[in-house]
Write a structure and sequence with these properties.
The protein is α+β, with helices and mostly antiparallel strands. The chain is built from 14 helices and eleven strands. It folds into two domains: about 1-60 and about 280-415, no CATH class; about 85-270, no CATH class. The model has no long low-confidence stretch (mean pLDDT about 80).
Length: about 425
Amino acid sequence: MLLYLRLFKESFSFAINALTNNKLRTFLSLLGVTIGIFSIIAVLAAVDSLDRNIQNQLSGLDKNTMYLTKFSFGPTEVPRWQRDNFPQTDYDDFEFIRRNVPDIQSSAYVIFGTPQTVKYGAETISGVNVTPVSNEISDIEDVKIAEGRFYTESESITGSAVIVLGHGVAENLFGNVNPLGKQIRIYGRRLTVIGVMKKMGNSLGGNPDDKAFVPANFVRRFQSGGVNGIAGAVIIKPKKGVDMGAFEGVLKQKFRAYRALKAGEPDNFFVNKMSGMTDAIDGIIGTMNLMGWIISGFSLLVGGFGIANIMFVSVKERTNLIGIQKSLGAKNRFILFQFLFEAVILAVIGGLVGLFLVWIVSLIASQFTGDFEFVLSAGNMFLGFILSTIIGLISGVIPAISASKLDPVEAIRTGM
């Protein structure tokens, strides 16, 4: 053990001498390793951070949640002209599903809202994402109320002129004034603020702080309904433990009968599952990881050649010393490990520099992305260290073997 510790110490000393004595050559050789490790770990850290933020945003939404509507949330084989002729999903559809489809834990009717202008006194905010939805949405999504309350079932059914504001909207409209009970103008009508949601920050599909909820039936008063009217959807959350395949089959069967679709006729609606969206997100993240590995792999390859090059030069420069060491009794494995350790140390130094750069970039990026936090996990740092070690081993093994096989007499003669 003491022999290997001494060997490690001497190899580290040789590596430091190589760094200090041949600064430009060493810098160029390690640049590839540094860039390669930086690229891979930066991509992994960015993708992990994105995945973590998405999972946090979707944590309050059951993956089994379904959206029944005329629109498909993903690729479909149904032609565009046929989809355009599908009837809109209206409030009557919601009432039918809620009353006739079994094993539903909760369901809600939502109208696909458009950005609206909100006014309070002299303050005006444009582009507010107003979502008209029935009160059951609070049982499906993780709607967190900071002040006041969400609207009740009675207010939802009667279409009361009430509104629940996102934190950002309330803050921009009212500042430090308590917004509860205040009346604002939206859709050209007055609504009373009854609740303010907790601050959430940026999320998938927009910022929840810049949105608002109003009863769907309030909007249905002045916007045209019916099968060809405003675009809506029925959000369905099945009971836990239900066979999802069987549940979806029953849902489609009953809804087809409700819409009087004959056997053989295609569905004129889509059942979009949240699990499909999360699977698609996982697929995209996996592809991003793969592309990052492929692109960064070329940098690592260049870095490996750089390490191998500097090790061959090091063997050439120290041929005389190798001959002397072997003539004094040094075994081949001692010479082998000496150069192998040196290659690993050089590669690890390049890798540590790459990890340090990723850490600096993640700190800077987190300052400019608001609520989106870039995280350099311990697992990614360990992976960077392991990759550096592997690069050093692979790059240094051939030069180390060639050094260990040198004949001591020829080595001394060549060095002279």
